[in-house]
Automatic annotation (TrEMBL), chains A, B:
InterPro entries: cNMP-bd_dom, cNMP-bd_dom_sf, Env_Response_Regulators, RmlC-like_jellyroll. PANTHER family: CRP FAMILY TRANSCRIPTIONAL REGULATORY PROTEIN, LISTERIOLYSIN REGULATORY PROTEIN. SUPFAM superfamilies: cAMP-binding domain-like (SSF51206). Residues 19-100 form the Cyclic nucleotide-binding domain. Coiled coil: none annotated. This is Crp/Fnr family transcriptional regulator. It holds the Pfam family cNMP_binding. It comes from Runella salmonicolor.
Length: 198, 198
DNA sequence: TATTCTTTATGACCGAAACCATAAGAATCG
DNA sequence: CGATTCTTATGGTTTCGGTCATAAAGAATA
């Protein structure tokens, strides 16, 4: 889901900034002034809780994040943190809006991406609503499975139980227990503790 | 949050259709072929559960719904049902896309609206994640309070406890009990059983 | 006005997930 | 390579929201 070619970004004055592992790109409740697009590394979008975080999204090469506040003019509803060393394209708001105005094709692709994110969050909210931990876990796994480059028949889940807990709003122990149960039911497979989904 | 002027819709070949109270506009998993904009009445977007529904959104005069699947080409993730008698503008997908292409201003306003919806769902997911029923209820109430025409200092919640339950994924009894508790805590006020939020 | 149906309310009981403690294997780092 | 941290695992206890039953007040309908 690559968004904007780097050549176009540069043309509008973007710069490629480095962020160290653990560094924040922006904080919750900050006003939005820049467009961000990951060139290298991974970024985590999350809400910090007292005990656990809630992960709203994970972004890597070619993906942009934090644009809705830029477009609609509100403050960030979540934090963005580099979870590895990163190189990120940074473009000023006014330049980004100009880029969108000048390139209807890019604008339409962006709209399309927002539509897909909305679809994902709608499905997620529905899954969360059911209150059923197992359904939550499978919904999250299937989301990343569908998002994965190849629609592999066999998807190796690249997350720890803790990460799944952070995305589903459950506790680690619950995820551990439910994953074992899902494996026993045949919904998942466990290869040396790695979760695999068919 | 009016989306597209009816004159423009008509110009692109939209027709004003009637839907009776209780009638479905579309069903979950249907492919999307039309743009819908409410002229009169109210529409409920929801996922049906075995016991309870989960309400994804409520739409009335001037609001459009069900566009993301149209833009990104996937199937509806929820059902849409008229909860009163309705008049709804209906425009064929191809004509809608043409309208967007011809009117960059309308396109940008649409993108902005998707951004706002995404913001709302992000906050909602965070609230749901906390697992705290009281926070869920307040998040929903505040959403509609902010959405309300006037930023009234005193917002009278226009929903039954059952409706709040359907939007938060809680049970009626839980909502009833928690609302009483929130009133005792001073977060809400109860005027003759009507919920009021300051 | 009488009769439903809906909405709000309340209390008892139950079960599932949180919480807590502990531990062992795996990975990371100095 | 040893030490430390992270991850997976397991079992016991607690808590909170779901479930069920019941009832009364209000709204809608005949």
């Amino acid at each position: 889901m690559t968004v904007i070619p780097s050549s176009l970004l540069q043309q509008y004055g973007a710069s490629l900034n480095r962020f160290a592992k653990g560094e924040y790109v922006f904080h919750e409740s900050w006003p939005a002034h820049f467009y961000f697009q990951v060139e290298e590394g991974s970024v985590k979008l999350f809400n910090a809780g007292e005990n656990n975080d809630y992960i709203q999204g994970l972004f890597s090469h070619g993906e942009s994040f934090g644009e809705p506040p830029l477009i609609a003019g509100f403050c960030y509803p979540a934090n963005a943190k580099a979870i590895t060393n990163c190189k990120i394209w940074v473009l000023k708001k006014a330049d980004y809006l100009r880029l969108l105005r000048d390139n209807p094709g890019v604008h339409f692709e962006f709209t399309k991406m927002l539509a897909i994110r909305l679809f994902h969050k709608t499905k997620l909210l529905n899954a969360m609503n059911t209150q059923n931990p197992e359904k939550r876990i499978l919904t999250i796994i299937d989301y990343f499975k569908d998002k994965a480059p190849r629609a592999t028949p066999c998807y190796e889940v690249p997350f720890t139980r803790q990460a799944i807990a952070d995305m589903t709003g459950l506790r680690v122990e619950t995820v551990i227990k439910k994953v074992l149960r899902l494996a026993a039911l045949g919904e998942l497979e466990l290869l040396d503790h790695k979760i695999v989904r068919h």
